[in-house]
Amino acid sequence: MKHIRLVWVLAAKDLRIEYRSRQAFLTTLFFAVLILIIFNFAFDPGSAATREASPGILWVALLFPGMIQLNRSFQSEMEEGTLQGIVLSPMDRGAFFLGKFLANVVFLVAIDTLILGAFIIFFNFAIESAFFWVFVTMIAGVIGFSAVGTVFAAMVSNLRIREVLLPILLLPIVVPIILAAVNATREVLIHQDFSTLGSWLQLLVAFDVIFVAAGFLVFDYVVGE
Amino acid sequence: MSLENSPRFLNTAERYLRWTRWLLAPLYLIGALALWAAFVHAPTERVMGEVQRIFYFHVGAAWTGFLAFFVVFVAGIVYLVRRNLFWDELAASAAEIGVVFTTIVLTTGPIWARPIWNTWWPWGDPRVMTTLVLWLIYVAYLILRSSLAEGDRRARLAAVFGIIGFIDVPIVWISIRWWRTIHPVVITRTGARLAPEMLQAMLIAVAAFTLLFATLLFFRTAMRLQDNAAEELAQGVRERSG
Lengths: 225, 242
Description:
A: 9 helices; B: 6 helices
């Protein structure tokens, strides 16, 4: 019970900072929308081929803000020296991980929902029930992505090359998320085929469970001592 | 600062270098045997022709690559439990060797695949793609190491990354296999049985590569341990001379 409260205090702190400044949120959102637009310039907008490729474009546009947010999530802690404070407090490191992870998930789900809206507009999709499943897939993807990402962001937080190092570490590991999310999105949105959705969601949930547990267990080694 | 690691590390390095020397003669022998088996003993494949002979080196390298990454995983766990830098040096050596062998796999593969499958890079094949992702993960592991300063922190972070990377492999494998069944199947695997001479050549190649891996691992770990000890001694000298 105490742990849950601690997790919430930490996550609420991060989210309050985000809410009060809002600048990072809007800048990241603007960047993601820009990616969606640039892809439409790069490909032939409105063509069948671009439509077929659109789930991939959506997920690339979701990956970039994710990467930016993860890098930021420990940056302010480093700059203000608060990371040391948290590590020195008698708080369980697992709870520290969950707090950071939860804040990242909430931030990314919020921003990704808006990106999804922009995606519907720019790619001329009808607002249909399939988007509910795309949304569910997105949340499942964000959870796994944030779990691994929070651990890696903490790893690289005090390195000078963290901006490039984080994607190098993270992208190979999240290959299953990208494959599952892009294929699930394509099947339900483009092919109106729901038969494989269950398998892909299972894979995402398995990834989520494994890596939230792994992050919880190994975070002590990453920030501790 | 006390010389906590150097005496022990130098002893272990000495022992490993001795083992390396002992392993050289058998290694040359089985290496020559593997070449003979692959190029002379094994018959030419009826459909694929001579290019099929690359298979023996491909399989040998693939097996050792996976073995090396498994060593990284286990050594990482042991390091986190025991906190002895020896295990970190062992993991780093295994990762380097694993990347080299996986690179061999990813080079010999396209050479064979172009004439046989008519494609350099079969994007739907789970084996190829998992090996590629594995290669990416362990190159990232080496980049992570090279960007951190030597010491306990680097060892801890590398161990964590090595463990997470290895846990990821089965999930990558499943996701790519499912992806492939959804995609149009470009390549059909011909379930050709191996002739007995081919199987022998393959097993000899695997044995030769495993021995090569062991030799390189002892040699590289010894180098790293000596490097570590030298660094510690230099540090001690600097501190004493103020």
